[in-house]
Amino acid sequence: MSVSGSAERDSSSAVVSQNTLNDIQFYHFMHHVTDLKKNEIMMTFDMLDWNSSGEIGFEQFYMLVCILLCSEYHVENNFRFRHSRPVFELLDMDGGRTISPVEYRPLASCSTSST
C-alpha cells in the first residue's frame, strides 16, 4: 500500500468516525461542486466552522448542501425565509447577535467578485 493511499484512508476514516470534514476535505468538495475561488471556499469554511475547531460537523455540512441545492434550483428566498436564524448565525461570525460591517465586508466582496 502506498503512503498516499494510507493517508487517504486515514483522512476518509476520520470523516466516518468523527462525522466531520477538515478544511482540506471541504476545499476539495467545494472545488468540485461550485465555481468558487479558493479564498471564497475558505471563507465559507470559516463561516461554517462555528466553534473554530478546524472542522465542520454534519449540521454545518447539511446546511451548506441545502444552500447549494437551493441556489441550483433558484429557491434561495424560500430557504432564507424558512431558515433565517441559522443563516443569520452563519453571518454573525463573532456570535454578538449583530452583523457588523466587518462581518459583512467579506460577503460583499465575494458577491461583487463573482458577478
Automatic annotation (TrEMBL):
Q: Which residues cross the membrane?
A: none
Metal-binding: is it a keyword of this entry?
yes
Q: Which UniProt keywords apply?
A: Calcium, Metal-binding
Q: Which GO terms describe its molecular function?
A: calcium ion binding; calcium ion sensor activity
Report which superkingdom the organism of origin falls in.
Answer: Eukaryota
For biological process, the GO terms are: flagellated sperm motility
Per its UniProt record, what InterPro entries does this chain match? EF-hand-dom_pair, EF_Hand_1_Ca_BS, EF_hand_dom, EFCAB9
Any one of the GO CC terms: sperm principal piece
Residue ranges of the EF-hand domain? Answer: 36-71
PANTHER family (UniProt xref): EF-HAND CALCIUM-BINDING DOMAIN-CONTAINING PROTEIN 9
- Any idea what this protein is called? EF-hand domain-containing protein
- The source organism is Coregonus suidteri
